[in-house]
């Protein structure tokens, strides 16, 4: 991403407003806010019990997700292939649908190969909540030792742990959706009704979870419209070109979101949540987009509720304590941040997708230096991020974490998930 500041450039705003894509974005229906099902104390206990909140985020443990990702991994390199294969292996074991978006593009150093990775739980659901981050690291001349701990190894490791922890609940939700569809084939017509100003939902129904790992976010030289977000630009264009025809079973619901032209795969995105520059101590996270303020407020509420229960106080190795929550440790800051920060969300935002951008602002002081290594990370903060996102995703998707069936399935799998990888033969 470009230098660490919030852009308030009039030229940037006018260019976005009058771009050819702006006209397409303008005809997309505005999604109305909806009330989440607030987690009960039993739900919070169940979510806390879905696996250790920091084990896979501990960069000092060689087998953790974060350790496997935190190596130099520039686009086109062998290291990035290794990291991408590792990420894919996690989702392969979980049985999620995989899409590899491979392409080549011109860079200041010639044509380079790129590979976006997309993983979807319950691909039959009409809509997706996208959670995304970039898994490449910035190019520096050899010898390149930049590992991008906050940028964005830690967000990628968070996504892997969230997928593993929430998978049993997501499976149970998919089974509920499939069972309801068998009883009433037009169940989505009952669940997805029209509301004033856009589409209104029952909480979480008809929405699956999709994780996207972008290649080529970083500029090779200077951040420009052509030397940056290579993977995001390609995937947004690809999905926009994948039109949903009238014979598609979900066409009626997708058509309600776009009048002209015909709906596309982009219209299946309920919201797009981008994680970047996370894992440092005392981050400041602001909301950038008025249309997703209600989503940001839901995260703020989750932080309040978890803090009140003493569930965000971590000792250095991740144990819960009963000590009072310190105001200075709050992650989310209320109030609208004007402008925006250029990142992987831009190609999707230009096409009318609703964005929640979770990025430290101001940037971590180690940004784009070799000091963005393990010393820049704070394990208790990573644990807080993990728990907050577990709760927020559970409430968004109405996962019912205290459901006994999901709990039984998780209890059978949690021991395997938390065992060292050498014991599992991986």
Percent strand: 15-25%
How many helices? The count is 14
Which H/E pattern describes the elements?
HHHHHEEEHHEEEHHEEHEHEHHH
Q: Termini separation (Å)? A: 34 Å
Based on DSSP secondary structure assignment, what is the total number of beta strands? 10
Poorly predicted tracts of residues: 4-20, 22-27, 187-201, 316-328, 419-426
Helix/strand class:
alpha/beta
**Strand arrangement, major sheet:** 1-2-6-3-7-10
Largest sheet: 6 strands, mixed
The radius of gyration over CA amounts to 21 Å
SSE order and pairing:
Elements: H1 10-17, H2 20-26, H3 41-48, H4 65-69, H5 78-94, E1 97-107, E2 110-120, E3 127-134, H6 149-183, H7 187-191, E4 192-195, E5 198-201, E6 207-214, H8 230-241, H9 251-255, E7 269-276, E8 285-287, H10 293-308, E9 332-336, H11 346-349, E10 355-359, H12 379-397, H13 404-418, H14 421-424
Parallel strand pairs: 3-6, 3-7, 7-10, 8-9
Antiparallel strand pairs: 1-2, 2-6, 4-5
Explained architecture:
The chain is an alpha/beta fold and 426 residues long. The protein is 38% helix and 16% strand. The chain has 14 helices and 10 strands. It has helices at 10-17, 20-26, 41-48, 65-69, 78-94, 149-183, 187-191, 230-241, 251-255, 293-308, 346-349, 379-397, 404-418, 421-424; strands at residues 97-107, 110-120, 127-134, 192-195, 198-201, 207-214, 269-276, 285-287, 332-336, 355-359. The strands form 3 sheets. Strands 1-2-6-3-7-10 form a 6-stranded mixed sheet, sandwiched between helices. The chain has a two-stranded antiparallel sheet with strand order 4-5. Strands 8-9 form a two-stranded parallel ribbon. Strand 4 and strand 5 form a beta hairpin. Helix 5 (78-94) packs parallel to helix 6 (149-183), helix 6 runs parallel beside helix 12 and helix 10 (293-308) packs across helix 12. The radius of gyration is 21 Å and the shape is globular. 47% of the residues are buried. Mean pLDDT is 83; it is low at 4-20, 22-27, 187-201, 316-328 and 419-426.
